[in-house]
Amino acid sequence: MTRRLLKLLLALFLSVPALPAAGAELRDPYLHFFNANTGDLRAELADVRSTGKKAVFLFFEQEGCPGCLHMKNHVLNRPDVQKFYREHFLSLSIDIYSSVPIADFAGHAYTEKTYALSLKVKGTPTLLFYDPDGKEVVRILGTVREADEFLTLGEFVASGAYKTREFAKYRQELLRKKGS
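Predicted structure:
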């Protein structure tokens, strides 16, 4: 098989949602995970501060991205993930090729594409968390494959643990505690 055909088959495989456990509900991430994007990140940040949320979460994606599709079909569609992230974060999707206007945390005008370039987003998915002051606190490049790991990432940011250690170390500590 050619490499191109293998990539296509992988993309198709990853775009098919996993079968839920008996009785498990899966919900559209664009309706239940992501918040409506007003295109004004400074205003979004003010909402984060006024509601007591812990951060702004930006999910940089592009059409056809296998990792993005995997996350939307296996992680971001889960009610437990949606509930946790809605409680603690304002979550926005940004298309790295979009010409939709967006203003950054300082009010500078961009398109989603030029904003992604300004942040040196090098691939998708890229996950960025910004604290209530608009400072980037966590950046993850690549797919978070499991919902439990994505929830752990959320807890890492929401708890403020990012201030004292890297996510990998935080995750190892949790795994060691569970194993003991």
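Summary: Confidence is low (pLDDT under 50) at residues 5-20.
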